[in-house]
Amino acid sequence: MENTTTQIQRKPALKAIDMAYIAVSAAFIAVCAWISIPVAIPFTLQTFAVCLISGLLGMKRGTLTVLIYILLGAAGLPVFTGFKGGIGALAGVTGGYIIGFIFTALIVGFISDRFQKKTIPLIISMIFGILLCYAFGTAWFMFLYTQNTGAIGLTAVLMKCVVPFIIPDMIKLAVAAILVKRLERFVKC
Fold this sequence. Notes:
The chain is mostly helical. The chain is about 70% helix and about 0% strand. A hairpin with a 5-residue loop joins strand 1 and strand 2 (about 45).
């Protein structure tokens, strides 16, 4: 008797092109982490890279990119700011901001997918994504700082860890949103 059972072909979770985008994008985030703009308080281009990648690749691929970037750093590769890597970099007082990139990628990627990369929703999602990153990172900073050094007020943490980066981050978000629109035709969905 002939087998009449139909075989269901499973669609691969990620295609080769997706894996290539994710790998190149994780490397791009690392390179942007190494670039330090020397102003009164130096800043890197990590937030720019996370927003650009998530806007271009969408929620699934953008978030996977950020997760892989973080896992590479956790494994000890020097992908974080200052060529740092390892669990210690993530467990330090600024590690919460790195973990916060996951929230940024989720929000920006979701809105990018939902609104077909339209500029205004993309910029709004990037602002909310960065605000969530700030919130998570600031809470993490306060918790660890308090445990290791002593109590610190929210205002002091915001003045040290957030306020100096607001204007540079807004500029980076604007540039990222413009680049998403310019580069979207080159990225296959």
